[in-house]
Amino acid sequence: MSTVSDRRARVGAAVDRAFGESFLLSPRCPPEGDPNGRPVSDSERPIFEFTGRWTSMASEQHARSRATALETTRAFVTEAPSVTADRAGLAAEIRKNDVLTRLETGAAYVVERTADGGFGRIVLTLRAGPR
Q1: What is the pLDDT of residues 96-114, one digit of tens each?
Q2: 41 to each of 4, 32, 52, 96, 98, how far by Cα in Å?
Q3: Rounded CA gap, 17 and 11, in Å?
Q4: CA separation (Å) from 68 to 32, 120, 121, 130?
Q5: Residues spanned by the domain of 59
Q6: Percent of the chain with pLDDT over 90
Q7: Which of 18, 78, 101, 103 gets the highest tally of CB atoms within 10 A of its CB?
Q8: CATH number at residue 27
Q9: Helices (H), the chain
């Protein structure tokens, strides 16, 4: 890891401690033999708790790129709630259709998409929880 990446990871961990909250991940997978079936509990991956940073739907954000001041970027509104977390703090891989419970409120969401957040982080885009 480069000096900048290492520094960025340490800062991310400090921000998680200050502003992060606890989430519970319940792994899900399609039923055996039916890839299009309704997801069921995945017994091969553990249920685990982790710390992440919550972003609610319709939050105003700014695009971030190298050497660009935030005031010079155009604001946009997030289309869905999301959580960012440090990959090193996860006990298992997070996949689409896993159920994520926000422990602060008890609200449950389904992982719609996972993306690389850079610097060892993962971004989870969520949708309304299971019914």
Answers
A1: 999 999 999 999 999 999 9
A2: 39, 11, 22, 13, 9
A3: 10
A4: 48, 21, 21, 39
A5: 3-128
A6: 48
A7: 101
A8: 2.40.10
A9: 3-19
